[in-house]
Amino acid sequence: MAALIIILVLAFIGVLISAFMAGGSEKRKNALLWSAGGVLLSALTGGALFFCKEAVKEILLKQKPHLSFMAESINIPWQIMLQLGMTVFSCGIILSLWSYNCRKSSSKWYWALLWTLGVAFLIGHLLFLPQYYGIAAFVNFFVSPKQDVFSLDLSMLPAFYVMLAVNLLGALLWLWHTLKTEKHSWKNILVFAGSFTGFVCLVWLSAWCAGTWAKKSVDTKAAVLGITPSRVAANEPAELKSLVNPEFYTKHPKYNPPRSGKYDWKKDTIPADEKAYTMKFFTSPELETYLTSLKRSAAYIAQTDVQYLSPLQHFRSLVRHRADIAELYYRTNQKEKVLPELLKYPELESLIPADTPFLICELVRTATRNIWINALIQYGPEDKSHLPTYRKFLDWSKSWKVHLPCEAGFYLVYPPEIKGKIAAFFYAPHLNTARYRGFFDAVKRIPALKKLEQAEIISGDGMYAKAAKRQRLGMIMGQIALALKVYKIEHGKYPGKLSELVPNYLPKEYVSPSTGKKLDYSVKGTNFTLVVDGSSITSER
Questions:
Q1: Is 520 helix (H, G, I), strand (E, B) or coil?
Q2: What's the average model confidence in pLDDT over 356-384?
Q3: How far is CA 281 from CA 287, 329, 380, in A?
Q4: Which are the contacts of 223, defined by CB distance < 8 A and separation ≥ 6?
Q5: SS in 3 state form for 157-184?
Q6: Residue 282 and residue 538: Cα distance in Å, rounded?
Q7: pLDDT surpassing 50 at residue 147
Q8: Does the reported pTM lie above 0.85?
Q9: What are the beta bridge partners of residue 522?
Q10: CA torsion, points 73, 68, 358, 427, in degrees to nearest 10?
Q11: What are the pLDDT digits (tens) for 447-462?
Q12: What is d(CA 433, CA 223) in angstroms, rounded to the nearest whole number?
């Protein structure tokens, strides 16, 4: 990144030198050669930038550090790189034209130099730091922030054209000014400098008015719809950080349960000493204390206005551990304790709000349900005395729904606050209009999400479509697995076909949420296997 900046700076200095030499040359041949050199240097710089995708990506991540977690998936299209190269080339031409005309005022060269440097500063900020000025604020009204694809949006290309057109217009006006008026007057330079600066100020002022209106519109609409600010916080409070001991696994390296450990228990790959340690430790008060701390941390999920990531991780870990304990009870022939352990899950799931504004919470809910269902099907007792409990679970599973929060509240606090009053003042138009567009796009998405939540067959590969498929798939597999469990307890065996579960156990025969085809179900001996869209669940113990 540093090398790229150095190359650009040196190239612009070279362009300025070429332009001043061209403007000072008495012979036309020399003037043309210097001008050609400046144009060639601009072209070479723009061409070099075209191949610097990694450097541009590094600059993007430095400006937006919250995207660092998906650095590997960020893709910068070649059209963007081509446009950047063309922009650098155009900037070089504009600078050359400006400095050439300024050099005409040879008796007042220092005014020409200061004005040229000022123009270079304006061009650099208008093209590469648009947040400080008004152009980008208006672009936000026409460019939607994309949540489905982690790549630069090609719809941003018009922004470059608009900014470039502004500077080209300025260059043409400067050319007309220097050709029409007296060329040796420094007053003319100051007049045009003031005019151009006034033009930029006018653009920014109009953007500031637009940003103020945008902020008011968002706040009014949010109040009408009852949408409150929500955010995913990177910095966690000290109280939350202190809840869970981060050295638990360091202190107990030999504790490796089936789901939370690093070995495959079904294939018996765990070393004998670690297996013995795990079998003994899983009923210890120390482990229970650790799980209690995970539950306290997971309770932070219920804060609907802010979401911390560690409580979600701790919630998943807690559910895995509870499933591990149930399985270890089964393996140590304490089968009477398996179901009481698994009965703790519905209470744990209540830690996640029923109508959470965060999509990530819903995905975590789906993932932990799958963990619980698998453990329940594989290790839950099949005595008829437990039939009411399984019936209750089956009825509960029928109330599960796909929930896709539009996350409009996220934009009410987007983007992060800017440090410094002056910086915040100049950033205001861009931030307010970006907030406006993101919020209203999210609000407009609500009807489509409602339809997606109700859809049986879900098409598309966007973020929300993938989330809906995952949730629908989890619901289908969970209900069918529980229905099969109840059927076996009542009949002593699994049904030969899933259609036999309708209508006494399931309201209908489900199909794949991705393809609409029937599910792949098979029975082998005393076990069943259900495969849907690459995911599977089996009763094999």
A1: strand
A2: 94
A3: 7, 12, 22
A4: none
A5: HHHHHHHHHHHHHHHHHHHHHHHHCCCC
A6: 25
A7: no
A8: no
A9: 529
A10: -120
A11: 999 999 999 999 888 8
A12: 18
